[in-house]
Fold:
Amino acid sequence: MRLLYVLLIGIILFTACKSEQGRAKAVEGEKQASNVKIETHNIVVKEVVQTSQYTYLEVTEDDKDFWIAVSKVDVKKGAKLQFDDYLEMKDFESKELNKVFDRILFVQTIKGEAVSKIASVHGAMGMESGMMKKPNAKMQDVKVDKAPDGITIAELFKNRNDYKDKIVTIRGKVVKVNRNILNLNWIHIQDGTKDGENFDLTLTSDDDAHVGDIITIKGKVVLNKDFGAGYSYDLIVQEAIIK
Structure:
């Protein structure tokens, strides 16, 4: 979660420079980032709502009721639990539940009685899409010509240290999209080239794309980005603009 805070700040600085709309997003992002907290809570479960992969819990603490979310775990009503790291979100919409939570805490780890394992959420706002998990991509049969003044995915991975914190231009085919996570779209592209087992490039962008699109992007190369919970990217392109 601490590293997630750093990611949010990076997003804020970039969007703030783009437009009045970007500055509005920056203000909201700062509000969200300021809600990242680490403090011990002792709670009692009042209601359990299971989805396909995650568990929503209405809990009480010091006579106050609120909702938290964790990765799917078998918890019973009345269970006494504890948690520390969390991110507070307001007006959060769960598409799977078709419900808007006025206030909900996305919990990093939770434990206590009637919990069969330590439950962890791999990224707060992207939980239902599973975006924050390190991708298990398969190389597709694609061949995309290199963009003018650009580089290939293979060249990027092979010379990653040379491109660290630099702006690159890459053309590729969109093979996966996860939208509206941390107020950004997370896009995976391939161009048919690879360096070892590296052939799938993840990028974050305000712009949208669809699976099957051939796009040219320009963005900043970031190395060793860790989102916590054991999931990290050796290389990711952030602040990407789709031409």
